[in-house]
Design a protein that fits this description.
By secondary structure, this protein is mainly β. It has 1 helix and 10 strands. The chain has a single domain, classed as Jelly Rolls (Sandwich), CATH 2.60.120. Strand 5 and strand 6 form a beta hairpin. Keywords: Lipoprotein, Signal.
């Protein structure tokens, strides 16, 4: 009987957590093993999205104490089904001026939900793709950081826009 109670409690917890996230359309993470190489591209296949709705887009970054910087530069691409590409170079703060990590989480790993784009529509039928790569460089060094330590996961999230 206790096993059955634990099973039902687990199912209820899963349903409660997913029911509270009604705005989520897409949410996926890719693990980064042994550092994020400057040439490594994290790709998310979004599938086909409702062309009549608008969405808010987020990049989710999980970092641990091995991350040595207070900011993070990323290069992103949204690839449309018919070949159009939108590229952005983005900078995000990862730590406060006093060195305290931004983001949420207990222990060593912090999760940052970073605004990417707001009220985006996906007008073309077909599958969309998002690509993300790190673009960190040390001051006075043209070459990028070869292997960026401390980023454990890169995620991409799409939510229904509040303007729908």
């Amino acid at each position: 009987m206790p096993k059955l109670r634990v099973l039902f409690s687990g199912i209820f917890l899963i349903l409660a957590v997913t029911a509270c996230d009604k705005d989520r359309v897409f949410d996926d993470y890719k693990p980064i093993q042994s550092g994020w190489n400057k040439d490594s591209v994290v790709t998310f296949n979004l599938g086909e999205l409702d062309s009549l709705k608008t969405y808010d887009l987020f990049i989710n970054i999980r970092n641990n104490g091995e991350y040595e910087y207070s900011n993070l530069f990323l290069i992103t691409e949204i690839q449309f089904p018919q070949g159009k590409v939108i590229s952005d170079t983005l900078e995000y703060e990862m730590a406060a001026p006093d060195g305290t990590w931004l983001g949420t989480g207990f222990g060593d790993v912090k999760e940052n939900k970073l605004w990417y784009r707001e009220d985006v529509s996906f007008p073309e039928p077909g599958e969309y793709r998002v690509k993300i790569k790190q673009a960190m460089r040390k001051n006075d060094n043209i070459e990028g950081i070869e292997n960026l330590k401390g980023i454990t996961d890169v995620g991409f999230r799409i939510e229904n826009s509040s303007n729908n």
